[in-house]
Structures are given as C-alpha cells and as structure tokens.
Amino acid sequence: MGYDEDVMFIRVIKSNGTISNFKVPEVCVDIKEKYEISENDEYQCEVLMPSNLLSDICNELKSYKDLNLKIQVNKNNLLFKIDDSIINADIVLENKKTKEFYLICKKNFSIEFKNKYFLKINNIVKKINIKECFLQMNEKYPLIIIFSICSVSSFQFYLAPILE
C-alpha cells in the first residue's frame, strides 16, 4: 500500500503470481481529525461479516439510492432500513443466526446515512477482492469499515452520518 497526496495505491500480489494494482482517490478530509476520533474512543457496536454479505445488502438497497438509510442496532440484530412514502424496505441480520455474521452491541442505537454514499462501499468490495470487513459504529461518530485485503493489509472507509 502507498499514499501520494490524495490518492491511495494498493498492490495485491496473489499466490498464483498475478499482481493487481488499484488507485483509490481520497474523497474527503481526514475524518478522524474532523470528528476528533482517538484510538481510545469506544464504539457501541462492532460487526464482523464476509464482504459478500455486505455486497448483497448494497445490491438490495441500490434502487433506493436517493433516500436515507437508517441503521438500527441492538444486541440481537443489525437492521438496515429505508422508509419511502410508497415502499418501506429493511434487511435484518440476526446475531448468531446469520451465517458468518458476528455482532457485539453495548447499547441500542440508530444512525442515519445518505444511502448513495453507503452504496459506494459495494464498488470497493467488487473491485478489490476483499474477503471480510469489520464495521465499527457509534451514534456520535462516522461509520468505520475496515476491509481486510490479506492477513497483513487492510484499509478503512469512513462514512459520516446525517446530523440533525
């Protein structure tokens, strides 16, 4: 991995000898500094899931790209919800019932995002062969998604919530 000005470069060397190179532009200011997130801050929810599960969620929500996405969390479920005047959609992941999905929730909460920005996650998952992702959520901070590229490489995606 490398970083030059506002572009991140990722090189993945696979065991079969192929090399994949990716150039990912930085899309916003350093969100850690903007929200004053420190390494000691505790997140109310942590989720580990396979990236294909996150991709499936994005695919189901893509027809609602112009609406807001609400994520509701409790110790048993992670709910992705879209409310429209015509159609309501929700996707529920159940802790210990959804395959390869692990949820640790310290407090029930709800957080809202622009769905069109959340859907950008799917582009990352599809273009860079990512196996699993780790989500950290807190009602006061941006959503952090840590993508594991291999056992020693990862990168983070930040998504700022809608603030009232």
Automatic annotation (TrEMBL):
Top-level division of the source organism's lineage: Eukaryota
A Pfam family recorded for this sequence: PCNA_C
UniProt GO BP: leading strand elongation; mismatch repair; regulation of DNA replication; translesion synthesis
Domain Proliferating cell nuclear antigen PCNA C-terminal as annotated: residue spans: 39-162
One GO CC annotation: PCNA complex
Alphabetized UniProt keyword annotations: Membrane, Transmembrane, Transmembrane helix
Matches recorded under InterPro entries: DNA_clamp_sf, Pr_cel_nuc_antig, Pr_cel_nuc_antig_C
Signal peptide: none
Membrane-crossing residue ranges in chain numbering: 141-159
SUPFAM superfamilies named in the record: DNA clamp
Gene Ontology molecular functions: DNA binding; DNA polymerase processivity factor activity
Database matches in PANTHER family: PROLIFERATING CELL NUCLEAR ANTIGEN (PTHR11352), PROLIFERATING CELL NUCLEAR ANTIGEN FAMILY PROTEIN (PTHR11352:SF10)
Protein name, UniProt field: Proliferating cell nuclear antigen family protein
Organism, as annotated: Dictyostelium discoideum
